[in-house]
Amino acid sequence: MIIELLLFGVLTGFISGFFGVGGGMVLVPMLLLAGFLMKQAIAISIMQMVFSSIYGSFLNAKKAKNVLKDGIIIGIGGFVGGLQSGLIVSNVSNETLQYIFIGILIFSIVKIFFSPAEHNEESKKQNKLVLFIIGFVIGIFAMSIGVGGSILLTPILVGFLRYDLKSATSLGLFFVIFSSIAGFTSMSLHGHMLFLEGAIVGIASLIGVFFGIKAKHTINSNSYKKYILILNILILIIMIYKTFIS
Question: Where is the protein situated, by its record's location annotation (predicted)?
């Protein structure tokens, strides 16, 4: 199983760096297919995110300075929301968590599909309270299903706050730092964390993150949007199969 976890980590890291996500949307379904229960997959995924989000945001820092101010406010909200995840996971069934995951994927696909990859005008200055509330709500839901929150945050940033897609994914990965640390803390306090498996996947993910971010900066925005949609649709198919068929 260690070899599988290492491979999962590298692949998840690449996807995390390339798409600006925590990686849970990919890692959770893979762990489910490998035989882990939903709550175990969530725990491993959250620990992996701590590794990939910090390293990925460090690599993104020079190109994403313009979005980090909003990212800090959203991130603080995500941290507070993420602290509630252990309580939610303790009181909600595996099946319900999988249904929530599927619902979030569908929302993300629809919103990104109908939003442009680039906006002609600059994004307006956002209300700090609104940004905090967005982060708080996303933190609650995202950490409870083992994803970093970028899968929800990116379509909101692009569709409602008018960020360019690449800037939104950079901010999304930065947000994951806050939400994943909060989720890691909450899950650990509630006795759900798998430290060894999470560390194996997390350390391996650093390799993937490096190459994922390099690849991200080589493609144009419209192609990037297509890749994000393809990824989300593939993950949706896997989750529907795992939840309703297998």
Answer: Cell membrane; Membrane
CB 220 within 8 A of CB 139: no
Q: Which domain holds residue 152?
A: 2-245
> For residue 21, what are its two tokens?
């996500």
**Residue 1, exposed/middle/buried by CB under 10 A (0-12, 13-18, 19+)?**
exposed
Q: How many domains in the chain? A: 1
Angle, CA 140 vertex, CA 46 and CA 138 arms, to 5° = 95
CA dist., res. 128 & res. 146, Å (int): 26
* 37 secondary structure, DSSP code: -
Q: How far apart are CA 147 and CA 46, in angstroms?
A: 7
Q: Which residues contact 94 (CB under 8 A, 6 or more apart)?
A: 37, 38, 39
Provide the greatest CA pair distance for the chain: 49
pLDDT digits (tens, 9 = 90+) for 171-193: 888 888 888 888 898 889 988 89
Helices 2-19 and 38-60, packing angle to 10 deg: 50
In the chain, which residue ranges form alpha helices assigned H by DSSP? 2-19, 24-33, 38-60, 68-82, 85-91, 94-113, 128-144, 150-159, 165-189, 195-216, 221-240
The residue whose two tokens read 């897609």 is 165
Taking residue 195's Cβ as centre, other Cβ atoms within 10 Å add up to 12
Nearest to 163 by CA among 246, 84, 64: 64
Question: Residue 146 in 3-state DSSP?
Answer: coil
Is 58's pLDDT higher than 90?
Answer: no
